[in-house]
Amino acid sequence: MRVAILDDNISFCKSLENYLSKYHFDISIYTNYNDLKNHIDSFELLFLDIEMPNISGIDIAQSLSYKHLDIIFISSHDEMIKKCFNRNVIGFVEKSHLEEIDDIICRIIKKEHLTIIKDGKEFDIYFTQIAYIEYSLRDTTIYLNNNSKIKLSEKSLSLLSKELDDRFYQINRNIIINLDMDPIYNKGTVKINHNEFQVSRRNQKDLKIKILERSIYNARNI
Q1: Banded pLDDT at 14 (limits 50, 70, 90)
Q2: Which of 8, 73, 155, 211 could form a disulfide with 140 if both were Cys (CB 3.0 to 4.6 A apart)?
């Protein structure tokens, strides 16, 4: 994704660029709008300061409302938030809380894989490959739909679950299943890939709903 940062404070621009480095975006920095406006069509996302010399970020956003461009406002003044939103503004982030960016980014990029580091090597496991994930004796094991498995030492299920999307559901303390693997629920248990698991009592009703919702979603997207 091509991303532009527009802020007259170059030091902040560099800080924001560094924070965004984990997303591997193609980032360009601009400290005035005149330099950016002739290249604006090449970007998909713009981080835009509200208060800049000579021009307001709000005015810039309004002038770009016809563009296919997502805008995230960045400012030290949260009282400005009500004035910020128009058709292509998707978020407002305070400069002192850059971590707020992550939730917004997750809405606009759909991650389809886990990035795993094992034996010093980094590789991706696509969500479509995962049947279920099990936590046991402080280790997490990812079971793939080709009957192979990947064991991750000292990796908690709660941390791993934060990297998954809504096709995954935790049925008890130790098991997360992939709802796209056609799980079959029956009287407190669920079967997936010929393996049967107990569903915690508090999750049984919710699991039935999730299975139905996911099947409807998949039918609409065939």
Answers
A1: very high
A2: 155
Q: φ and ψ at 164, to 5 degrees? A: -100, 165
What CA–CA distance (Å, rounded) separates 218 from 101?
Answer: 29
Q: pTM of the full predicted structure? A: 0.53
> What is the mean predicted confidence (pLDDT) over 147-154?
86
In degrees and rounded to multiples of 5, residue 184 shows phi and psi of -115, 115
State whether residue 92 is helix, strand or coil.
strand
Helix residue spans in the chain (DSSP H): 10-20, 33-37, 57-63, 81-84, 101-108, 157-161, 204-220
Nearest-CA neighbor of 159 among 202, 116, 201?
Answer: 116
**Rounded to 5 degrees, what are φ and ψ at 55?**
-150, 145
DSSP string for residues in 27-61 = EEEESSHHHHHTTGGG-SEEEEESB-SSSBHHHHH
